[in-house]
Specification:
This protein is an alpha+beta fold. It has ten helices and ten strands. Helix 2 packs across helix 7, helix 2 runs parallel beside helix 8 and helix 5 runs antiparallel to helix 6. The longest helix has about 45 residues.
């Protein structure tokens, strides 16, 4: 790598273009994630409190996005540009744009190594990090080819304004398409599976592969049922401290499939009701997941900090 490559990559206008594009793609990525989650199980945590939190985040976005875009440009896009241009000059073959975009893999691999050291996936993080630098790198190339008009400060302002308008336009377009898709049934909102007693019967254990929590027999008996919570609640929610104490109780009893209709405003979700011979006498596990991969879950947290305990069937 030559110092000329480094100076070119860290040019003020290049950093500005990379930061603006990096910031602009974040809201679009958030909208895409939201659309893809429409058919996911919310585990009963969706509500006005979540909408209020999203509104607060939206108010802070104008302040956060430029900072996040600049950080992304400095740790991912611009280093990848410098490395890609240096490799293109040394190789002297192949299209320059391919080397420039390929350079994003190097800082991406750095993030992959960091996450792998912390126990995360290497390949997935590397590819996602590299992909996040593609659009900013293309934005740098686009603005570099446009003739400079006016003062540098005015040109940088123009970069931010156009990136912001493009981001807002894409977000609105995606939301409109998602709304139309839900109205027409192309995208269906999540509905919990309607399981038969035969499908529910079996051994249920923690999703992390821990010990069995429920052993539901086909004849309606429960062999092992540590209670996930007590009936005593605080402000209508379960006290996590009491829940942990109650979870040590191993009892026997019976189980049935019912419908959760405690809250008329909530979706009527099927639940497994366990009537125990000891401890608190009764507790319920909501049914989630899909018909092929069913789940039982209960919320042990508070309204502001839900703590979902999920069981999967052996």
């Amino acid at each position: 790598m030559t110092w000329g490559n480094v100076r070119d990559a860290w040019d003020n206008e290049h950093v500005t273009a990379a930061a603006a594009a990096g910031a602009a793609q974040l809201p679009v990525a958030a909208v895409v994630a939201f659309v893809l989650s429409l058919d996911d199980d919310s585990y009963g945590t969706a509500g006005y409190d979540g909408a209020f939190g999203l509104a607060c985040v939206a108010l802070l976005l104008p302040l956060l996005l430029p900072v996040l875009g600049l950080v992304h440009a400095c740790v991912q896009t611009v280093p990848g540009l410098a490395l890609g241009r240096a490799a293109a000059r040394r190789a002297r073959r192949g299209p320059k744009w391919a080397w420039t975009l390929g350079g994003q893999l190097v800082p991406g691999a750095g993030w992959g190594i960091l996450f792998a050291a912390l126990g995360g996936p290497f390949v997935g993080v590397t590819l996602w990090a590299a992909a996040s630098g593609v659009l900013p790198a293309l934005a740098v190339a686009y603005w570099a080819r446009r003739p400079g008009r006016g003062l540098e400060r005015a040109r940088r302002r123009r970069i931010w304004v156009r990136s912001g308008l493009a981001s807002v336009g894409l977000c609105v377009a995606l939301l409109v398409v998602a709304f139309m898709a839900t109205v027409t049934g192309v995208i269906k909102e999540y509905e919990p599976p309607q399981l038969s007693p035969e499908q529910v019967a079996g051994v249920w254990r923690h999703e992390d592969g821990g010990k069995a929590v429920l052993r539901l027999r086909a004849d309606g008996r429960v062999d092992l049922a540590p209670n996930p919570y007590e009936d005593a609640t605080m402000d209508g929610r379960v006290d996590p401290v009491d829940a942990r104490e109650a979870s040590r109780c191993e009892v026997t009893g019976t189980w049935t499939i019912d419908v959760d209709d405690v809250d008329d405003t909530a979706d009527r979700r099927p639940v497994v009701t366990v009537e125990t011979d000891g401890c608190d006498g009764r507790n319920t596990w909501m049914i989630g997941g899909t018909e092929d991969d069913p789940e039982l879950f209960v919320d042990l947290g508070s309204i502001d900090a839900p703590e979902i305990e999920i069981l999967v069937k052996d």
